[in-house]
Amino acid sequence: MACIALVLFCSFSELTTRPKIFYDEGLTIEVARNFQLFGKPDVLTSPGQFSGVPYVTGSTGFLVSLPLAGFFSFFGFGLTQARIYALGWLILFFVVTFFFSRKVFGPFASISSLALLTTFPPLYDSGRRVLGEIPGFSFLLLGTYLLFYRRQYFIGGILLGLAAASKPSIYSLALVSVILVLAIIEREHLWRKLFVFISGAAPMIALWFIFAVPDLLSLETWRGLIGFYSNPFGSGYSVVSSVQENIKMFFWHSTLIYFTLLSLPILAVFRWSDKFREERRLRAFFLIYGALILVYFLKSPGWLRYLLPLQLLILLFLPTAILEIAERMKSLFSILAKISTRVMVASAVAGLFAIQLISLVWFSDIYASRDTEEVLALVHSRSGDNSIGVINSPQIAAFLPPEKKYHFLQLNNKIIVGENPLLRPSSQLFPLLILPEPEEGLVISSDALGALQENYELIKSVGRWQVFLLRN
Question: Which residue spans traverse the membrane (predicted)?
Fold first, then answer.
């Protein structure tokens, strides 16, 4: 309860501004809004016209966006409501992690794990946004507990299927990991167990396909879906160079160095601890899933959020690993025999707690910004009944009236949807235009840039965005 109270206290003071609204979060909020209004889990590119690629725009997963649509129906629509909804998932995360660690590692280790999780900065960065990482991790823990400790293969399959439906890119790897764990360890009645597990997970995955694939019978849709998930970073992306650059990050990035060091005692304990020999299913899952997550990160553009599930698992396992090491040290060094094992563990955890707390308060890169709210206020005061052109800004488009917005989305350098508002005939240009600042990385063609300079004047730059007014 103390952890939850602390999280709520820290969150409500800057609920809509820290962290600033994220690109994928804007997509998720609009998907939920459109499902509430139109029954379509997709984003609008113009009034009545959807993107047609909900497997990209809804990559967070229906388990997050569809309940959010219901939340909007009851409590109204807005960023405040969306962030309160995200806090609900964060509270569930702490309840589930406490339950899991208490059942698996014991009361003392569970309190220690919660202390580390409560001060872990990326948890607040992802957990206070409407994204799928935290909901998916909660289902992952519940599913693995029921699978490995209660032998509930069907319900465990359902829960891990829900995890995959929350964030397919990273939690579908958990399904693969469980299948490998069962194949390696569960020799007796293996095929029956696999069948029961897959029978539980399959309907959840099928639901994701139903919501994410607009036309299940279209070969073109399936070609696009396979193309996106085989390379979500776009054409021309070099996996080899990304792997090389991401490996280098482990030698200079503080977060990667920190978690590499934290993983060492866990890996050491896995080798010789009797406790983890007994917990061999969980140990195998940690190693296999951790390896798959690591590979997925290495082939990415260096996005650390892909490592979040592995980081959370490390913080969960670490106090128990420290406990095992403390017991071993006491047996090897008589000078430590009189020191309580719990005192040794508590001291180590307190040190890590202090490091993370200092990082959270003073050094974390959880950026705060009111730019979304300021741009929306400016647009509201200037637009009147006119239509609004938006270029690649789902953080803004999500909150604009659906009957007024025309959104050109560059989801990656291969998937581009909507009509570029700058390339319309001069008589059909929008009175108001919103596009990202140049440093946000948007690539604008020379024709579009020429049209912008000829027809529009900048009225205000706000944070990540520029707002332009059509010249008379």
Answer: 55-77, 84-101, 107-124, 131-148, 154-182, 194-213, 250-270, 282-298, 304-323, 343-363
* Closest C-alpha among 420, 428, 472 to residue 450: 420
Q: Which residues pair with 460 in a beta bridge?
A: 467
User: Which structure tokens are listed for 264?
Assistant: 């060492």
Distance of CA 443 to the CA centre of its chain: 25
| Token couple for 337 | 């025999």
Alpha helix stretches (DSSP H) within 106-253: 107-118, 121-127, 133-149, 153-166, 168-185, 190-212, 219-230, 239-249
The backbone torsions φ and ψ at residue 112, rounded to the nearest 5 degrees and listed phi first, read -65, -40
Q: What is the tens place of the pLDDT at every residue in 340-356?
A: 888 898 999 999 999 99
What's the pLDDT at 116?
94
Closest Cα to residue 197, out of 133, 138, 144? 144
37 burial type by CB count under 10 A (0-12 exposed, 13-18 middle, 19+ buried): middle
pLDDT per residue as tens digits for the range 253-267: 999 999 999 999 999
SS3 433: strand
Separation of alpha carbons 414 and 295, rounded Å: 23
DSSP letter at 430? -
Q: How far apart are CA 222 and CA 214, in angstroms?
A: 10
- Please provide residue 46's backbone torsions phi and psi, each rounded to the nearest 5 degrees: -165, 165
Overall pTM surpassing 0.90 (yes/no): yes
Going by C-beta distance under 8 Å and a sequence separation of 6 or more, which residues neighbour residue 53? 42, 224, 228, 411, 415, 417
Rg (Cα) of the chain, in Å, rounded? 24
Residues 49, 52: Cα–Cα separation, whole Å: 9
CB atoms within 10 A of CB 287: 15
pLDDT at 1 over 70: no
Q: What band does 472 get if pLDDT is binned at 50, 70 and 90?
A: confident
pLDDT at 228 over 90: no
Q: How far apart are CA 32 and CA 10, in angstroms?
A: 26
